[in-house]
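We emphasize that the prediction below concerns an isolated chain of 330 residues; any contacts that depend on oligomerization or on bound cofactors are therefore not represented. The input was used exactly as deposited, without trimming of termini.
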Amino acid sequence: MAALGGDLRGGDLSVDRLAPLDTAGPGALSFVSHARYAKLLAQTRASALIVPPTLADQALAKGPCIVVDDVYHYFALLTQYWKAKSAPELEAFVHPSAVVESTAFMGEGVYVGPFVHVASGATVGNGVRLDAHVVIESDAHVGAGTHLHARVTVSERCRVGERCVVHSGAVIGADGFGFAPHAGQWVKIEQLGAVLIGNDVEIGANTCIDRGALDDTVIEDGVKLDNLVQIGHNVHIGAHTALAGCAGVAGSARIGAHCTVGGGAVVLGHLSLADHVHISAASVVTRSIRQPGHYSGVFPIDDNAAWEKNAATLKQLHALRDRIKRLEQP
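Result of the prediction step, given as a token string:
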């Protein structure tokens, strides 16, 4: 309470775990974020609850509760506090099997796990944690307080900001998918840019962010990328945007700030999404979106010429329906 605030009612109570409302038992702290879950209050066995002011009386009838305006936000902060208190604090350490080149700069309080490689000219900030088999390539930069889980690769000249979390298997700065067709073959276009990642970014397991062809791929502050997300070369993602699992963004697309892209959705290359655009899961974004809002759409694959004609016709269906209704009126 002292660390997170909130209005404690019904007296002090010791709890030993956090649990969902429907499976919580004695000793557990749970939460109800919305009035539509109020009926579960009578059934839960949780010892204490976090509730909004509208449910305070109902919760208090069962026992102690913490009353806050934004329950879900408070719960998120509580999980961070709980993990920080329960997880063992790692001290500065370099495993004997790790290789840190002599020209790499290592900040204070850095934890370096087994078989890590920090290449020449790389910079690792204060309090960084590098788990087993992490690779930091030459002239790359990892900001203070960032945690790279096992088998993460940060390629040459790429930059990861402060307080980021990158989960296992993610690759930052692989070559973008750039090839020039010539005489029936593909000729590689060397990818000469890098990846720039801001502060407080979280990147899921096995996600790949390709380096730019000439300019850099940019991920701004606070962006959240789920597992298995593909970010193509020269993509720019605005601050505090979130992409769910298996989403794909093709090269040179630009996504604004505070956007969401649902799981399995695709944004085609060279398109732009305005700030506060929300794309439903499994949608395919085939045109730039200039206005904030929620967008959805999947259209079956077809011969391209036929697909374009059908798509144009489909956009007129609603107007055609209204015309037919008017014609049918007596």
